[in-house]
Amino acid sequence: MGKALGQGRRGWVVWSLGLIWLGMLGLGMFNPPVALAAPEAPEAPAIPEAVATPAALFELHCAGCHPNGSNIVRRGKSLQPKALKRHGVDSVAAIATLITQGKGLMSAYGDRLTPEQIQTLAEYVWQRSQAHWKTS
Q1: Looking at the chain, which terminus has fewer C-beta neighbours within 10 angstroms, N or C?
Q2: Is 47 left (phi over 0), alpha (psi -120 to 50) or beta?
């Protein structure tokens, strides 16, 4: 009965394989291999002028987890002086290292911020911590 069009079962298999091949070709599965270049080191994104202040940098990158020096993820790991000291974060340099490398649940920001921005944030956090995050 269907022998004229596809020669029976064998013709159906050939047609199916042809359709699969065309589908794979359309998805780019048979493209020649392309040499991949080594990934370049990511550059820190440009921060708009409006976000250049230490307070604005803190609001953009830190306040989501540390509003007013608290910590909504781990209550005992706030940015208050006692908590910082208890966890060995007792200087601007230690805060800068923590911002750069992250620790535990805290993300590292060394790939998102410039060294200058990290230093600015570390100094801001230290100053606000010493004032117990009270606004003047």
Answers
A1: C
A2: beta
Task: Count up the domains in the chain and report the number.
Answer: 2
Domain with 21, as residue range(s), is 1-32
Residue 14 lies in a domain: yes
Per the CB < 8 A criterion, the answer to whether 122 and 99 are in contact is yes
CATH number, domain with residue 124: 1.10.760.10
- Measured in residues, the chain has a length of 136
Contact present, 43 and 37 (Cβ < 8 Å): no
Residue 85 and residue 25: Cα distance in Å, rounded? 61
Residue 10 CB burial class (10 angstroms; 0-12, 13-18, ≥19) = exposed
- Are residues 89 and 123 located together in one domain of the fold? yes
- What residues of the chain score a pLDDT lower than 70? 1-9, 12, 15, 21-51, 136
Q: Report yes or no on whether pTM surpasses 0.85.
A: no
